[in-house]
Amino acid sequence: MTVNGLVSFKLVLFQKLTLCKSAGKKKLKVIKMFKNSMFKNSNENVTAPVSEGKTYDVKIEDVAQKGDGIARVEGYVIFVPDTVAGEEVTVKVTRVLPKYAFATVVE
């Protein structure tokens, strides 16, 4: 990208923000839509590598602020209550969200 292209980009962004400024309550919504279209992740449609109801053998790598163990499957975070760092457990996934999941220890 050339310097001129970068300057043009900044002007377009400024114009969009200026137009939105007079929109009152719609201001944030319009800005958010504009921002999302600019910085959209190309891997947005990638699904979680775990499925609700399935079991996985994992190692608890760390403990979260609220005390749940943190495990990972292909880099995807799974929160597991009542575990400690270093523990290897079999877990059953109870809830899957876009960025993380919750699971319980299978006994």
From TrEMBL:
Coiled coil: none annotated. Transmembrane segments: none annotated. Residues 49-107 form the TRAM domain. Pfam families: TRAM. InterPro entries: NA-bd_OB-fold, TRAM_dom. It comes from the Archaea. PROSITE patterns: TRAM. This is TRAM domain-containing protein. It comes from Methanimicrococcus stummii.
